[in-house]
Amino acid sequence: ESWASQGRRRWRSASISSSLPAAAVNWWSHKVFSKTTFLSHHYFMSYVAYLVVVMTLTAIVVYLCEGNVRFSDAAYLSVSAGTMAGLSSFDFTQTKLSTQIAIWLHTILCSPMLLTLVPPALRRRSFFFQMRFERRRDSPVGRALSSGDLEVVEYAALGKLSRYVVGYWVGCQLVGWLLLWAFQANRSGPHTGLWSACWPSLFLATSAFHNCGLSVYAVAFDGTSTAVRVGEMTVIALLILLGNSCFPIALRMLLQAARWRRRGGLGGDPALDLLLEDPRRCYTHLFPGYATLWLSLVTVGLFLMQVVALIVAESEHFKETYSPELRYESIVFHSISARTAGIPICDLSQLSPAAVFALSLAMWISISPVVVATRSTMKPQLRQPDYDMSGGHLEQAPDFTQMKRQLEAFMNENCILLAFLFFGILHSEQDTFAPTHFHWIVFEFCSSWGTVGLSMGPKAYSFSGDWSLRAQVYLMLVMFLGRLRGLPQSIDPSVSLYHVGTTPPTPRPRARTTSEMRTFASATAAAS
User: Fold this and answer.
1) CB atoms within 10 A of CB 400
2) What angle do CA 20, 21, 23 make, to 5 degrees?
3) Mean pLDDT, contiguous 10-residue spans, the chain (528 residues)
4) What does 481-527 look like in DSSP terms, one character per residue?
5) What is the dihedral of CA 60, 65, 70, 71, to 10 degrees?
6) pTM to 2 decimals?
7) Using an 8 Å Cβ cutoff, are 125 and 39 in contact?
């Protein structure tokens, strides 16, 4: 059987599944409390509560491990690492190994990429429970499932999606770690040598991929050969891109390559077809083709604008600081790092006001293109009544007007609250830093809102480490708001649970083909 006939057969079974009588009872209706439905109905609050609990526990662990830091400093580091901001109120490179391991695990537990898999996992779990429930009550849907007449393609698609994302998450960090380990072992300075470089390179690979910005050693290249410098900066820059801005682009390319491979082999895969033709049905960070192309163009455009701005504003500074071989490589690295990761390789306090403004603007924009693509491609309804055999109507039509509206709304989001928090920081520091270092405070504020982690402080820790406790609390709130701004809107169907047995919204009528009518009639007769 060819892949085309296999695909048509499975698409028909998916069409039948939506046309069979809906279950009168949901699988959770007999339960007093269901964790799955609770999380689906309170996704945003559950997300916030999870982050707060993990950050609190990590702060306690860091406080107990270090022993010589205040709990407020431990909490500041925990919030900064959990929000992927990467600011620290003390020198993180001098912390104990136990503290570094705690922050490394904390970064993984708060991983934005892994947490985006929670809604698909919950929906797949609900699919499984509903199918099991239908079989046990011997309903028409359950009999169709048991006989093999009904195949739930979306259930398979959600499982395949989770495997691809987890494999991507592990693979990028593993390859990045091995490459950084090789470069770190051959560079000059501390943490060199084969075994000494193992842990620092692993921590840096995880930090760069999650755009956290923390490192157990200062990422500087004094006395290091040019090849090692360029190689290390290139690997870090690629990890930064693959872990954030380019993740939806890379994921769609992986799925597209897998579909081409299957079509050239034994047969097609309806699960891959569903993921690529109706991506927002399954995942918040998998976009239609036009939105992925838009995100690619915007990402490249913002990068080129940052490169040009730094060349114009800081060409003399980079010329004095770096050799000709590293001059433009450093500019490219800062242009990539400034938007999301915040891993500096030079003293930012020496930059000109024009360069500071360019970096502040890049940090304020941060992940906005990805969020705009997520919100503008949101589907008004998750379940559709049936599938065309060609799958043509599944691909969303380009809607750049919606993207423009979402961009305007996103850039104005939380403006009033941010203004009050910025005022509170200035008021708290009015007798210390506000009169003399106003633009440094603006830079730190933009870095926190974009969860970037760059700081203009000349010391080994962030400039905000010398602020008062009240100002640091205000800045922690800014970091937390910056982390939450990447979440999908609460009405986004990708974080709602629909499954076999749930009555779908009333669709617009569509004429069935003769073959579809025959298939449907046969399935109905077999089910009865």
Assistant:
1) 11
2) 120
3) 44 41 58 75 86 96 92 94 91 91 95 91 83 82 78 85 96 95 78 81 94 80 66 90 93 92 69 86 88 92 90 76 73 85 78 86 85 77 37 48 64 83 93 86 91 85 90 94 74 41 36 42 56
4) HHHHTTSPPTT-GGGS---TTSPPPPPPP-PPPHHHHHHHHHHHHHH
5) 0
6) 0.82
7) no
